[in-house]
Amino acid sequence: MRKDNRIGSGSKGPDDVELSVMPDEKSGQRSEARGVSLFKRRDVAESKSTMDLATGREIFANPLPSIFLNPIRVWESLGPVTLDAEQLAQKGLFIEASDHPAAVGFDILRTRLLHGLAEKGWRRIAVTSPTHGCGKSFVAINLALSLARRPASRTALIDLDLRHPEIATTLGIEENRALGEFLSGDQPLESIFHRFGRTLALGLNGTAIERASETLHDPDTTSALTALVDQLEPEVVIYDLPPALVSDDVLAIGPSVDAVLLVTDGTKSTPEEIRAVERMLEGRIPLLGVVLNRAQDFNAGRYRYAKK
Question: Which has the closest alpha carbon to 73: 54, 55, 60?
């Protein structure tokens, strides 16, 4: 496997992170947004109305023209959530800056990722792994938190592992909203998404979807994810996806992502599995890099949560 650059956390624990940046290219067209939000980019008002899940009231019956779209207003419309920094730190998730080797490693990964995205003009990253248990959600969350620690930044983290959504549980958030309602266009972004602080939007999911692949293939999903980018204007969007070798979900979401970040487990992922993912993505979605998680699993019990 070709490697151009490598970064490591310098940690002697299971949080070791390495990134290999792949200079592949991707071209494609973005589909037309079709949300029903007040903040939708449109020049013509739409008569369709939407019911707010929380209040049951009719909302946003007539979207504003695109000239009035203000990403700051959109971010402010998202319901705020609080996260327990101490509790998450015990899981190896870092809301605040830390000199912990793992936190430093993710900050390095953040900076290298931003450089790679800037070179390509990309911002939509799918995080996946070859198989289950590699810690992809752990990496996706920590990377999003690290990106969100930058002042005046905008990062979006979306749980698109539709069969087994777990980001909300990992963050300690009781989620009863269904992300599928947003993907289908039945509910606007501001009825489903949360906001942590002023820099992190969270698309969480409290309801598993059995027909996950078909949902990701649906043009409505492509339109919803395009509307998300249009309305929030994030610098980076991170989609947490299922393992690449267990379904076609990663390929199904291809039109809505710019590149893939592959998370491997230093204690279990094999070269054959990594090559299989590379072959699957070749000519379809660029492979931005490879993250090596748990390169030195000296404290396996402590990080058992990341093996789920």
Answer: 60
For residues 101-110, give the mean pLDDT: 95
> Which pLDDT score, from 0 to 100, does residue 163 have?
95
Please, are residues 52 and 164 in contact by the beta-carbon 8 Å criterion? no
Q: Residue 39 has what pLDDT?
A: 55
* Parallel, antiparallel or unpaired: strands 194-196 and 79-80: parallel
Q: Mind listing the domains of the chain with CATH numbers?
A: 69-307 (3.40.50.300)
Does residue 205 surpass a pLDDT of 50? yes
Over residues 58-83, mean pLDDT:
73
d(CA 236, CA 190): 18
Task: Take residue 103 and report the two structure tokens written for it.
Answer: 């936190």
Q: What number is the average pLDDT over the span 149-159?
A: 96
Predicted local distance difference test score (pLDDT) of residue 294: 83
CA gap 58, 48 in Å, rounded: 10
User: Rounded to an integer, what distance in angstroms lies between the CA atom of residue 212 and that of residue 285?
Assistant: 19
Higher pLDDT, 37 or 29: 37
